[in-house]
Amino acid sequence: VQLQASGGGLVQAGGSLKLSCAASGFRLVGYAIGWFHQAPGKERELVATISSGGTTTYKGSVKGRFTISRDNAENKVFLQMNSLNPEDTAVYSCNAGHFVGSYYYPDYWGQGTLVTVSS
Question: Secondary structure of the chain: what % helix, strand, coil (to 5)?
């Protein structure tokens, strides 16, 4: 069971990046997926989730700028990030999990990818 995030890099403020999360060893269909980020010196935060049925949720500061999506046929999940600002600088990680009510619980964690936004 493995998840691997990719697509990070250095981008100027106002720019865009699209992160991908690829699963191997298991199928993502049936799992909820979450993207977390961890900025330097800060705790890890949940950025966005997508349920197995496609319902999405977002952290307040990224609403309207980030879009989470999934392609079950490709066994991948994506995070489109637009209008990036320096506060978005962090390591972004994906995971497969489940919801209990409105709470998301990660089950399998993947390796992160670094996003750096310059001002």
Answer: 5, 60, 35
Residue with tokens 């935060």, as numbered in its chain: 45
Q: What is the CB neighbour count within 10 angstroms for residue 97?
A: 17
> Which residue ranges in the chain fall short of pLDDT 70?
none
- pLDDT for residue 1: 81
Strand-pairing partners, residue 106, are 97
Report yes or no: 93 and 111 within 8 Å, Cβ to Cβ.
yes
**Ramachandran angles phi, psi of 61, nearest 5°:** -70, -10
14 with 80: CB under 8 angstroms? no
Q: Contact at 8 Å (CB) between 82 and 66?
A: yes
Which residues, 6 or more positions from 60, have their beta carbon under 8 angstroms from its beta carbon? none
Q: Whose CA is closest to 52, among 96, 105, 109, 108? A: 96
Q: Residue 81 corresponds to which tokens in the numbers above?
A: 């990030």
